[in-house]
TrEMBL record:
Gene3D superfamilies: 3.40.50.2300, lambda repressor-like DNA-binding domains
InterPro entries on file: Cro/C1-type_HTH (IPR001387), HTH_LacI (IPR000843), LacI/GalR-like_sensor (IPR046335), Lambda_DNA-bd_dom_sf (IPR010982), Peripla_BP_I (IPR028082)
Organism: Streptomyces tuirus
Keyword tRNA-binding assigned: no
SUPFAM superfamilies, sorted: lambda repressor-like DNA-binding domains, Periplasmic binding protein-like I
UniProt keyword Metal-binding, yes or no: no
Protein name: LacI family DNA-binding transcriptional regulator
Keyword set, alphabetical order: DNA-binding, Transcription, Transcription regulation
Source lineage: Bacteria, Bacillati, Actinomycetota, Actinomycetes, Kitasatosporales
Single GO molecular function: transcription cis-regulatory region binding
Amino acid sequence: MTDQSAPARRPTIREVASRAGVSHQTVSRYLRSRQGLKPATLERIDAAVEQLGYRPNLTARSMRTRRTGRLAIVIPVTTFNHVRLLSGALAAAHEAGRMVEVVSVEGSTETRTERVLELAQSGQVDGVLSLTPIAVGEEQELPRGATVVVSPDFDDAMRGIGELTDASPVAELMERLVDLGHRRFLHVAGDQDFASARARKAAYLEAVERLGVESAGVAEGDWSGESGLEAVRRLDPDRMPTAVIAASDVVAAGVLRGAHERGLEVPGDLSVTGWDDQELCRFLPPSLTTVRLSLEGVGRNAVLRLLRAVGGPEPEPWNGPAAQVIWRESTAVPRGAQV
């Protein structure tokens, strides 16, 4: 009689090699790094791994290499929604056969730095990814073999920097709206302590000048829906814009509410755009034109930097754009426009 309670046997590296039609040495190389292998070979091994449900034996690997197979990701306690960022990071780590501990630390940069060092020195993880900067010079205190990688994508307060401040979609939004017949715009800005908000404001002002259109002004905001609502409430009825470029989806929601209060139809009287592509954007009446940030890709590439530093399999990097315009129902030809 077969023992139904017995755990299923793990597939071996040789079984993966046989299924893929390659040598087991090639699969070993694949598990260390995908670099240098032909695309066709990678496809066959990927398929074999998926079909067999193969996962590296981390316990055996640890005994053999003195590695734990574990990584740590350290993030600060903020109001920023980490879900999409972490989903990309965790997916990449799991593809590489790594387990991940996510550590959220409250306090100053020094407090987070101490926690990063504790994790690196604990011997319980092979490497630590800090999504925010750590204190300058502290890396020199790390013991031999400990690996710490600091993400270049966020500042100390988890505000996007680097490519996450790319505001070029503002120009794309406004160029398309001008093509539709819009000639007077309003920008409801985000909190100017954020580099991304400053970049979007600058991109708006540059586009106004370059496209030769009129600006009804820049309403200083704070990422809140209230700032969007108040911006529309304060508009001069004799100089109403036909399009609003909001710094975020939440701000755009406030703009939509303000338009409703003033009896303005969206998009007939007022086209509205947001930024972030939050899930609710698809379900608003009308659905919101917005800009999607590829946070999953940012998280994926952050973990790949750590995997590269600690050694081992390196999944394919994300190479897409940092931001992409998503056109929906909230933008259209303005009523009475001569296009």
